[in-house]
Amino acid sequence: MRLVDTRPPFAGLANLSEGALASLPTPCYLLDEAQLRRNGEILLGVQQLTGCKILLAQKAFSNFDLYPLLAPCLAGTEASGLYESRLGKEELPEKENHVFCAAYRVDEFNELLDYADHIVFNSPAQLAKFGPAAKAAGKSVGLRINPERSTQEGHAIYDPCAPGSRLGTTRAQWDAALAKQPGLAALLDGLHFHTLCEQDADALAVTLDAVEEKFGDLLPGLKWLNFGGGHHITRPGYDLTALEACIARMQEKYGVQVYLEPGEAWALNAGYLVTTVLDTLQNGDTSLAVLDMSAACHTPDVIEMPYRPPLLDAGEPGEKPCTVRLGGPTCLAGDVVGDYSFDAPPAEGDRLIFGDMAIYTTCKNNTFNGMPLPPIWALAEDGTCRELVRFGYNDFKMRLGHRA
Ligand SMILES: *Cc1c(COP(=O)(O)O)cnc(C)c1O
């Protein structure tokens, strides 16, 4: 197997020796410290140039063993709820702790106040219900707005601006709430929007036009504006200059501190999933291979998004002589990673390496079919590999019941 591939998802494998690769168990997630550092440095550069603050959205990447590596580059963590907020507090206690949840629970809110510094509410009703307690506890309070300007077509499930969305407060919702409770506005320290997914700064600029059009009158009195996530900042070719102009535009015009909270960008192309071919089959015209990793269990976004992940040394279907459909060992007919082409057909025992596997994988996997969770390893900058965590039968059983 050729380990040197300069295409972005595999560039970091140049550090990995054949011997180190062969010693990894499969399936196995391998997190790439050099690539994480590279991403961190790009994000630090944006902060240094513009004065904005960039948070790690933990829902995309929360392998806290590697938080110390990112810590010098990040301003804080962003959480989707109580547990992620607590994780950020435990693992990066010196950093800012931000949380957004579509609806907070009464029985969790007091504990959340122990962890979070910035609390963002999704609706005027949630702001009215919890905002006064958050303010009394000294928290910075925000409202997620919905600027109602879709900038993506590809993935409807990732478009919070779609008609009928529950995410974010529209201007009409805000005006209606304010008419009944004029005191709501005084609770706000900032506004938050999250409308992008794997997008470039041109989509951000369009979103900012809509934010100004709909909510511009609220901004001058506020302390901060959070641009959410979905900024593909560390992708080769991303227009950093346009991003920096977007940040400067809002900071200068409204005097607000700009925050960004990407998830993907921190760990983009910074991980691999190493898997072994367990069996090969032929069904009519279709060549198949069954792997020891499952798309449904170990890379759920492959099915949910859906997308076809990059595979080292493989081409598009039909591009190379042998096209093979790769699937997992579960009972699910749709547990298919995708169709790939190879110079020679993969054989039982071959190792395959999927790229860009650090995001939305280790934090989103599951044990459907009793599938074991792959261990998580780290690839250090000197090319050595070490195990961060391994899982066993108990990690499957403990979620299903408890016999005293
Ligand atoms: C998902 C999400 C993020 C991170 O998104 P990425 O696409 O991983 O950058 C940030 N903020 C909020 C509110 C989110 O829902």
From TrEMBL:
Reported cofactor(s): pyridoxal 5'-phosphate
Q: Which UniProt keywords apply?
A: Decarboxylase, Lyase, Pyridoxal phosphate, Spermidine biosynthesis
Which InterPro entries is this protein grouped with? Ala_racemase/Decarboxylase_C (IPR009006), De-COase2_C (IPR022643), Nsp_de-COase (IPR005730), PLP-binding_barrel (IPR029066)
Q: Can the keyword Magnesium be found in this entry's annotation? A: no
Cite the binding residues for substrate: 264, 301
A GO molecular-function term, please? diaminopimelate decarboxylase activity
Q: Name one GO biological process term.
A: spermidine biosynthetic process
Has the keyword Protein biosynthesis been applied to this entry?
Answer: no
| Domain Orn/DAP/Arg decarboxylase 2 C-terminal per the UniProt entry, residue ranges | 159-357
SUPFAM superfamilies per UniProt: Alanine racemase C-terminal domain-like, PLP-binding barrel
Enzyme superclass (EC): lyase
E.C. no = 4.1.1.96
Q: Which PANTHER family match?
A: CARBOXYNORSPERMIDINE_CARBOXYSPERMIDINE DECARBOXYLASE (PTHR43727:SF1), DIAMINOPIMELATE DECARBOXYLASE (PTHR43727)
Annotated protein name in UniProt: Carboxynorspermidine/carboxyspermidine decarboxylase
Q: Which organism is it from?
A: Faecalibacterium prausnitzii
Name the gene behind this protein. Answer: nspC
